[in-house]
Amino acid sequence: MKTTMKTLLLIPFFALLLFTSCQDEVTEISQPQESEALTAESELTGLMFSTSIMDGSADNIIDNASCTSVKLPITVKVNGLEIIIDSREDFKVIEAIFNEFEDDDDRLDIIFPITIILSDHEEIVIESHDALEELIEDCRGENEEDDDIECIDFQYPISFSVFNTDFQIIDVITIENDRQLHRFLKRVRNAEVIASLNFPMTLEYADETTVQVSNNQELARTIKEARNACDEDDDNDYGDDDFTKERLDKYLVTCPWLVHEFRRNDISLSNQYIDYALNFKEDGVVVMRARGGDIVTGTWSTRVTDRGALLKMEFENLADFTLEWIVYDIEDGKIKVFEVGGNKIILKRNCDVIIDITKERIEDYLEECLWRIARLSVNGADNEKEYIGTPLKFYENNIVKLRVNGELVQGTYQIGVRNAGFILQITLEGRPNLKLEWLITFLKEDLIRLENANNKMILERHCPGIDNDLTYVEGVLINGEWEVAAYQVDGENRPEEFFMYTLEFIETGRVKVTDPNNGVFSGAWLSYRKEGLNLGLYFGNNAPFDDLNHRWKIKEITPNRIELKDFNANGEIERILVLEKK
């Protein structure tokens, strides 16, 4: 999700009726339309109320009930093994123990007392198994239709304006979660309050995509359309390994799948098969693309048995994949399969992956935008730092240009075909680390991976002018001159190293650095998005600015101040750089 650095607040508002001990001040308000209000009988109130009901299906592997949820942590015995469950991730541990052997009787015993969360978010303490069974008798059975809407959720906070009977605002209520919303809507349904939603508001679907709505009609329509748009998983089997054949087939053919983990005969082959791509086609053909670009074609089929859903793959020249696999876990965007004897594959869905690579498709991708050199490893040494702020631009007629300190260095490129697959050959004078023949091992619209004997390169697409946040960052940077206001390394502030220097960010990607004693030198800059907003800075060997050669995370930006941070692999802050407008 993007984080907006510049927020324009457009606030359609009702004036509040203010009371003070010194004076009575009344601000005129426009009377809202009756259709805008949530009332006890309105359809939208009911839809929102059903969406706010506590969904207890996630932990059915423990309590066998979709209308209740067990409050964590709890202690359980799974097939005699006592474990503490303190997060939803631990449900997978239970499932793994259940799946360890195919011919045993699985048993789960809860260590009481436990706390149960009811569908209305109230909590009660349960002292015994009999008391739990009595409580869940009122729940609907497995996969029976119930009142809760699980396929869409609200993104909080949301707010309501509360009115008196004359439709004058008397309060504004902010809601932070489903529990608060459920309680507030209960008051609306009991005709205790009349309220109106404050738009716009955002909702999130089960597949984590979002939609923004601007009025009651849009909200009601969105909830109704989404209410049956996903698998609510209201059964007592953890995950979605209870898929019907039809649903499993439909799920497999939606997009290509990448191998994330692979184990055969209890030997890990993940390094060998990582990022292999599989495309399941509706005619029973599966096409696999190896990292080197080789294409292998096989067949696939599914069936549902007492063992669960089974996926059979057959490849004439790929024995490791040729097996009938048990589908034991399906999450959104992920499939896990296994077979006894230490065989396991984890596949992750990636709709951007291209299986059938062609020369024309490679050229189309290359010519669409700029490409950042995100990684460059030559003979085991990392060389990407010297390419910070220096993106490549591929043109028709095999022209390639590299932006260096705001200037374009021109060269040529060719797309060729070798026995191993497609290759990208780059020729740029003065850039021997790029002047190589690269095998294209992975291709999608915004990412290209390349390899040769001892070298690896990753190109990531950069399209200026289409991201409002980046447009704002670039507008701030090029507007005026800057100085280093703070440079903290391991908690020690050392801004004096940069005293009296002036930085000027030029629109071409050049940084002009003015040294009061030794004149002017140049650097390069590039703002881009990757897991947030980033600012790449490169000043070559020009001290003291060579310490700042880095891809910095933008943590705060205003027209007069930019705060950048450098995080280590553990997520800890190593350095902070603050630039301020002179």
Structure description:
There is one protein chain. By secondary structure, this protein is mainly beta. The chain folds into five domains: 111 residues, no CATH class; 83 residues, no CATH class; 105 residues, Beta Barrel (Lipocalin); 104 residues, Lipocalin; 114 residues, Lipocalin (Beta Barrel), CATH 2.40.128. Helix content is 15%, strand content 41%. The protein contains ten helices and 41 strands. The strands form eight sheets. The protein has an eight-stranded antiparallel beta barrel. It has an eight-stranded antiparallel β-barrel with strand order 24-26-27-28-29-30-31-32. An eight-stranded antiparallel barrel has the order 33-35-36-37-38-39-40-41. The longest helix is centred in the first third of the chain and has 12 residues. The radius of gyration is 29 Å and the shape is globular.
Overall number of structural domains? 5
CATH class of the largest domain, named Mainly Beta
Major sheet: 8 strands, antiparallel, barrel
Under CATH, the topology of the largest domain can be stated as Lipocalin
Kindly report the average pLDDT value: 83
Count helical runs.
10
Q: How much of the residues is beta strand, in percent?
A: 35-45%
Spatial separation of the terminal alpha carbons: 33 Å
Query: Oligomeric form of this entry?
Result: single chain
Kindly provide the radius of gyration, computed on alpha-carbon positions and rounded to a whole number of angstroms.
29 Å
Helix percent band: 10-25%
| Poorly predicted spans | 1-32
